[in-house]
Amino acid sequence: MRASRTITLVVTVCLLLAGCGTKYQEMGFTGGVSAEQITKDTYRIAARGNGNTRSTTIQDYALLKAAEITKAAGATHFAIISAADATTSDTIVMPGTSTTTFSGNTAYTTRSPGYVDNIIKPGQDVHIRVLKLAPGQQMPSAYSADEIIQFIGPRVQRD
After folding, report:
1. Beta-carbon neighbour count of residue 98 at 10 Å?
2. 8 Å CB contact between 92 and 116
3. What's the rounded Cα separation, in Å, for the pair 87 and 53?
4. Dihedral sign, CA of 18, 20, 21, 22?
5. Segment 5-63, tens digit of pLDDT
6. What is the pTM of this model?
């Protein structure tokens, strides 16, 4: 009986946590995004999601954080130096249960099958270099921080 309650509690907690995709927030238990400075103009950005977050959402989070870091550094553009997929997967195995009741000399057994669930948690690691370009100046493969904020900013879910 105690094992049944424990399993029910674990399943309930998992459902509550899995019910929400990761929001654009500082890195926490359910994911998020963080940035740390490596050199005067280079930053490492990490974005992580939970099992209900799309990989494109995590890519948006990394780009938006890069744009915000760029603006905070007084720059106008950023270039992606490297990017790596940091997706992880977890497997949850829930055992089946059997309950037997007796009525006189007859035993009745009820079985509930177990299950295995694979959870994919998208992740992205990006290294960027912030750039201060003059108006009209262009650099191949440089992203405008203002444009990223304008186009990606409105579609991210914030906490």
Report:
1. 8
2. yes
3. 11
4. negative
5. 545 544 444 444 445 778 888 888 888 999 999 999 999 999 999 999 999 999 999 99
6. 0.77
